[in-house]
Design goal:
heterodimer, A: 353 residues, alpha+beta, 4-stranded mixed sheet, 3-stranded antiparallel sheet, 11 helices, 9 strands, B: 382 residues, 4-stranded antiparallel sheet, 8 strands
Chain lengths: 353, 382
């Protein structure tokens, strides 16, 4: 990690580590909104770091966004930080002025005419709190976007298995003004998968830390259970998954940072980050399946209680694994690219990265 | 906090031209090389091929020019290695000398040893094997009993080394032996550069389950070796061996052993539109690309003079799981009887070779259990 990203990592880690304990994470699941922490995140400019300076950003890259998102995952930050970063990026690329406050993202299907969409926005993260929703409508030519004020929308509350809000918003009228964008049709799942992978890599680091700590503390048969080879072998396996997930997620962020705008969205194209993002969602998603099993096994019954904080991370991993495309969905895209390339061209495809 | 120092660095752009040179060389040199033999990857022995690699300056390429090296970066060397492995090139003859024995001599050898031997490795003339395991000492390496005693003219070595890859073809073994009895297990061990033609040494190939003779038993029956055969300091063998292992465990050979099978699989399923095949193959590609990034990250750490023993163990452990999964994945997607006789298709032959070799991937270079023990200690479990 370069020095800028190391400093950024320290800053966000301090901000979250001081503000979030198990009690507050539990409060968030009961619907408490942490206004002061949100304001702190917003005022430090973290939400717009990755936007161009013309869009009110700091001109940093997806690699910096990765550092922020990973820290959100490490601390299970119960705020729409990552979603606001994603929405802000999409809005800025479409030429909208990025509004302040928490932002949501929703994908809507086009109607048969390809012009209008339902006035329902489904499973908007923190829909009840957002000031605006960036609605995305994939069309044949790419992606149409609209910046929709949330005020006046009727909110039906819902949540994912991590009890993060996933609300449905019914807009008062079907008068959304869509705008053509230079973005590929799958931009939401692409950058959503990138940021979710970063969060999951962070949450995986935390379940490893919790598991190692517990294994060193918990005494059975007269010694810490971490001294038993059966436990050591499993924790080493967890460490391998965590290391692979972290590497895959960071490589995706690096690729997105370096991508040429013209290449984005073509999975196999040189300079296109979709290949690395797909790799990340596959590898991180598999780690999110196997990693929590090991962490829970090591923690025993205490880790299955609501009181212990392990579940704030494992439930997020289970929920996030399926958001913005399951590992299987992304694997199929990668497989299609590999098969189209053919055996002799597979290696050049991998090493062009 | 991340536990590991895996970054997301690329190989430098300057490597691109070298990569093209290596590809052109391999296309030309291995044009008629059969798929089945490519499946041997880095256990394929071919001294004539090694001579051609040497002529290109791709053995010992990071070493000082005065020893015949090319003074190129560890990352350039990485490019050459991964291209060779991906092509299934028969690199075994120079593999150990280039990866391990040469760097060991550079670091711990005497000037006489370096000047005499390193240029011969670079020319593809001197081949090496590694004498670590013994019949009663596998994972518990510190329990070895082969011993060397000082004589008037040098050292007398007695004992048996086993699972020594390529010993029947090699001029030298770098052996870890006991030079002093010690209550402390890791003390009293030393490394020797042993000419295998010395009197009193018997090399016997051991047939593996696939019928190949890649590894050997080497018996030292009061073998007399010269005084200057000691490498490094007497009694420092354990530390020297541990330093070697970071190089041994993180390279591209730790996730590319089954690569020829993946290319066969992609070609076999190329024409069809089955989602199950796409998903399963995409999964392998994702892990391949990620393991490559992890391995390159370790290469960057080594290049920067760091000691990434923990990260190297992680690469080997995760890499072996990936390599060992591939034969099963291939069989789940293609209705094919594995075979090794000439009647089979190239795919069936590659599958037949690799499914038989796969058990060794998590044994050689440190068993899975030993690696996971190292990782556990690195995590702070005690």
């Amino acid at each position: 990690m370069n020095e800028t990203r190391r400093l950024l990592d320290d800053t966000v880690t301090r901000l979250f580590a001081e503000s979030l304990d198990a009690e507050r994470l539990a409060a968030a699941e009961r619907g408490v909104w942490f206004e002061a922490l949100w304001n702190a995140v917003e005022s430090t400019g973290l939400l717009r770091a990755h936007l161009d300076e013309t869009a009110g950003g700091a001109g940093a890259s997806w690699h910096e966004a990765f550092v922020i998102a990973r820290a959100c995952g490490r601390h299970a930050v119960p705020l729409p930080v990552v979603e606001t970063m994603l929405a802000g990026y999409l809005a800025a690329r479409a030429g909208f002025e990025v509004p302040p406050g928490p932002l949501g993202v929703a994908v809507v299907a086009a109607d048969d005419a390809g012009a209008k969409a339902s006035r329902l926005l489904h499973r908007v993260p923190w829909g009840r709190r957002v000031s605006h929703v960036v609605a995305a409508m994939p069309v044949a030519a790419g992606l149409h976007l609209a910046l929709v004020p949330a005020a006046g929308a009727e909110v039906s509350r819902g949540h994912n298995v991590a009890r993060e809000p996933r609300d449905t918003l019914a807009l008062p009228a079907n008068d959304v003004r869509w705008r053509a964008t230079p973005l590929p049709a799958d931009a939401v799942s692409l950058y959503g998968a990138l940021l979710r992978s970063a969060q999951m890599a962070g949450a995986l680091e935390t379940i490893l830390e919790l598991s190692v700590g517990y294994a060193n503390d918990r005494v059975q048969f007269g010694r810490p259970i971490g001294q038993f080879q059966a436990i050591q072998q499993e924790l080493a396996r967890l460490a391998g998954l965590v290391a692979a997930a972290g590497t895959a997620a960071e490589c995706a962020a690096r690729a997105a940072s370096e991508a040429r705008a013209s290449a984005i969205g073509e999975v196999g194209a040189t300079g296109d980050p979709a290949f690395e993002i797909a790799c990340a969602k596959v590898v991180v998603g598999e780690a999110a399946e196997h990693g929590p099993r090991i962490a829970h096994q090591v923690h025993g019954a205490i880790g299955f209680t609501y009181e212990h904080r392990l579940h704030f991370f494992t439930r997020r991993l289970w929920a996030w694994r399926a958001e913005f495309g399951t590992p299987e969905t992304w694997a199929e895209r990668l497989g299609a690219v590999a098969l189209a390339a053919g055996g002799p061209r597979l290696w050049p495809l991998v090493t062009a990265r | 906090m991340s536990r590991f120092r895996f970054g997301a660095e690329r190989l430098p752009a300057a490597c691109a031209r070298l990569r093209e040179e290596v590809r052109a060389f391999l296309d030309e040199t291995l044009a008629d090389y059969p798929a089945q033999r490519r499946a041997y990857t880095w256990t394929g022995w071919d001294a004539a091929f090694t001579a051609k690699v040497a002529a290109r300056g791709w053995i010992g390429m990071t070493w000082p020019r005065r020893y015949g090296g090319g003074e190129r970066s560890a990352l350039e060397r990485y490019v050459v290695l991964e291209e060779m492995l991906a092509a299934g090139a028969p690199v075994a003859a120079h593999w150990i000398g280039d990866r391990q024995s040469g760097p060991l001599l550079l670091r711990y050898g005497t000037e006489t040893q370096r000047a005499a031997i390193l240029p011969r490795i670079c020319r593809g003339e001197a081949f090496f094997c590694i004498g670590m395991s013994e019949p009663d000492s596998g994972s518990d390496l510190a329990s070895i009993r082969t011993r060397a005693e000082r004589t008037e003219r040098g050292w007398r070595v007695t004992g048996t080394k086993v699972w020594t890859t390529g010993a029947q073809h090699c001029e030298y073994m770098i052996a870890l032996v006991r030079t002093a009895p010690s209550a402390q297990r890791h003390a009293g061990l030393s490394q020797f550069l042993i000419p295998l033609a010395s009197p009193g040494i018997t090399v016997r190939p051991i047939r593996d389950l696939a019928g190949n003779e890649h590894f050997c038993e080497v018996v030292f029956d009061d073998a007399e070796i010269p005084a200057d055969a000691l490498v490094g300091s007497e009694g420092n063998g354990w530390a020297q061996v541990m330093a070697e292992l970071a190089y041994e465990r993180s390279g591209p050979e730790r996730y590319l052993s089954c690569y020829p099978l993946l290319t066969q699989l992609v070609d076999a399923r190329r024409a069809d539109g089955d989602a199950r095949a796409r998903t399963a193959i995409g999964r392998q590609v994702a892990w391949l690309a990620t393991l490559r990034s992890m391995s390159i990250a370790v290469a960057h750490l080594l290049d920067a003079g760091e000691h990434p023993a923990l990260e190297a163990a992680v690469v080997k452990d995760v890499g072996a799981v990936f390599e060992q999964d591939l034969p099963g994945v291939a069989q789940s997607l293609v209705d094919l009887e594995p075979c090794t006789d000439p009647s089979g298709t190239p795919f069936a032959q590659v599958l037949g070779e690799l499914m038989q070799n796969a058990p060794s991937f998590s044994l050689r270079g440190g068993t899975r259990e030993i690696l996971r023990g190292i990782i556990a200690r690195g995590l702070g479990l005690r």
